[in-house]
């Protein structure tokens, strides 16, 4: 436990309060952004030193690149996404049990 | 004949100096020789250079003076130093090199918009920019000029904005610091030299300032993603993704619109911004000062003038209207510099407002302490103006009067320095809350210090309180 940060979670949901047009496309994008942001914020851990310093920018541009890019982000973060929901549903943190790399 | 040619080359080579700040890009390097600036293009950079050159983009941008002029010259002009070069280009020498930590907010903003405009113009021609360094922008007055021709390279279909993170750190985040929090970027920028990271900015932005799509994306999300490692380890998925050109262009255009909307949060007038209106000068005094500066400039004909304590740039404007070609106008008050920037833009003046705390000028710094030059190393003024300036250093900052005079005279071979006597209300304000520990601060001592280093050409009293302007010409 202990990774979830409720304050940060609130920030993500605030995306919907800023009075922008609620067209479907925007809503879909926002939802995707919020989900990914929630994961990114929730699982923020010290970065590995060898990481490309532009990782943040690359992930952001994947999101801005449309549905296809969003899917790449989702795929890259799929493991965490799964852990996030499974843990939430069962109240258990599966991270310790499942260290399989990739999907 | 052969011997003459050999000597000529030898002399040239001995004069060629590699620019100590130009080492990051293996595609080329800057050299200085014979008071000229050369750029080499190596084998690595040759293909992209040829593509960009043949696209016609460079010529078109040079036609609008948006990027620095260049011409291809013979390689032997650099002798052995051009051994690894496929091409050698010659650039005109800019009158003054400045750094983003010396720019006031409107200059950094103008540079950011210029960078984005150049990038958008390039993408329309199938060319892109390989980086987004603020140091690639210089100024002619308040007009930004892009100086790094090797940043241009062929756009590869589907590629991302590789300079996005750098753009955020070197342009966007420093602007947001002022626009969202009212904190000027300069001290922080001078410390890091690479700008402000999204991670740092995210920590100091309050929640209320994060409630916008742009801040969430470019600051909060970018910082969060940067901090979290790629979970699956399959980063090729990210690098293989094709970012549509249209989305790339839209990202740049949206960034441009956002930056255009940014204004300083601390909109209250600063002390010096209103100085020209509220200060205790009479019109007669102001006119007398203007006349003196005009007479000095008409006679001394300085091309480049450094106006120290420029305020909103009135006297720089007088200098420019009387024959000077460029004024580097320094002040430590951001409001004054912003007003000077607006004056230069409105009146189309070759006036560059720059931040300077004269008690702590920009030092040599960066790699090997030579990548970015200190102010003294860049001192190239033909004349210096220091009006109502000396007392701020000598009394406001406790710097011995003799040292202040020596520093000023060292900056330029001639100039005008105003001496404000201790009895003047402005000096009394400086002394109001403190003990007068300045027995050496007197006109007599000032004259003595100045005379020991320069000839005093003319002196004029401009106020009843005894303020005087000294026109000096440095000895030797």
List the helices and strands and how they pair.
The complex is a heterodimer of chains A (103) and B (476).
Chain A: H1 6-13, H2 24-42, H3 55-64, H4 67-76, H5 78-90
Helix pairs in contact in A: 1-2, 2-4, 3-4
Chain B: H1 2-15, E1 17-18, E2 28-33, E3 36-42, H2 43-55, H3 57-63, E4 71-73, E5 85-91, H4 105-123, E6 127-129, E7 137-140, E8 143-146, E9 152-154, H5 164-181, H6 186-192, H7 198-204, H8 207-210, H9 213-227, H10 236-240, H11 245-261, H12 275-278, H13 283-300, E10 304-308, H14 314-321, E11 326-331, H15 334-347, E12 351-355, E13 383-386, H16 390-394, H17 401-411, E14 414-419, H18 425-431, H19 443-453, E15 454-461, E16 468-474
Parallel strand pairs in B: 10-11, 10-13, 11-12, 13-14
Antiparallel strand pairs in B: 1-2, 2-3, 3-5, 4-5, 6-9, 7-8, 14-16, 15-16
Helix pairs in contact in B: 4-5, 4-11, 7-9, 13-14, 17-19
CATH architecture of the largest domain in chain B: 3-Layer(aba) Sandwich
Instruction: Report the biggest beta sheet of chain B as strand number plus sense, adding barrel if it closes.
Output: 7 strands, mixed
Quaternary organization: heterodimer
Portion of residues in helices of chain A?
55-70%
Reported for the largest beta sheet of chain A, the result is: none
Return the average pLDDT of chain A rounded to an integer.
58
What is the CA-based Rg of chain A, rounded?
15 Å
Alpha-carbon distance between the two ends of chain B: 40 Å
Strand order of the largest sheet of chain B: 12-11-10-13-14-16-15
Low-confidence segments of chain A: 1-20, 42-53, 93-103
CATH class of the largest domain in chain B equals Alpha Beta
Measured on Cα atoms, how large is the radius of gyration of chain B? 25 Å
Instruction: List how many beta strands of chain A DSSP finds.
Output: 0
Structural class of chain A: mainly alpha
The total tally of domains of chain B equals: 3
Strand content of chain A: under 5%
Using the alpha-carbon principal axes, give the shape of chain B.
Answer: globular
Q: If interface size is counted as residues with C-beta under 8 Å from the partner's C-beta, which chains form the largest one? A: A-B, 45 and 40 residues
As for the CATH topology of the largest domain in chain B, it is: Rossmann fold
Mean pLDDT of chain B: 91
